[in-house]
Amino acid sequence: MLPRTYEGLVCSIARTLEVVGERWTLLIVRDALRGTRRFEDFRANLGIAHNILSDRLGKLCEAGVLERRLYQTRPDRYEYHVTAAGLDLWPVIMSLLLWGDHHRAPDGPPLLVRHRGCGGSLRPGLTCDRCGRSLGPHDCDMQPGPGAQPAGASVSPASPA
After folding, report:
1. Which of 154, 160, 151 is nearest to 113 (CA)?
2. Which of 10, 57, 65, 121 is the most buried (most CB within 10 A)?
3. What is the 3-state secondary structure (H, E, C) of 140-160?
4. Could you read off the pLDDT of 59-102 as tens digits, one per residue?
5. What Å distances lie between residue 39 and 34, 55, 63, CA to CA?
6. What is each CA distance from 67 to 27, 46, 85, in whole angstroms?
7. What pLDDT is recorded for position 159?
8. pLDDT at residue 149, rounded to an integer
9. CA-to-CA distance for 161 and 158, rounded, in angstroms?
């Protein structure tokens, strides 16, 4: 059985898993990339326990994936913004999404990722299926797909970072 940490392994994948390998972490990053900023919005979108969300957000800030910014005083309240390191996870998350759509979405993709420029769909290799352009996080819009949850179910906001 693998240890809970990968300390001592000289491997970039192991080091990356130290940051994003825990349950919930990539879903938090996914939502942050889609525009979620506030603690309660993450909780509502994900249905995650308060203590777990607090821990994961703290670790993502410590790792430089998210940045905590004060938006209100009395009481102090913070938003979580994606950093350059967090934006660099977009290709990883989109590749996981496309893999899941292909192998784990019997009712069709739950989320459609569309190129803002022409309306084409994101395809493997992170290019547009219509115009062929390479796509990044600021080039895409997201909307519920045919495999989305029924009306009234928790769905993350569809605005990009």
Report:
1. 160
2. 65
3. EEEEECCCCCCCCCCCCCCCC
4. 999 999 999 999 999 999 999 999 999 999 999 999 999 999 99
5. 14, 12, 18
6. 16, 20, 10
7. 43
8. 75
9. 10
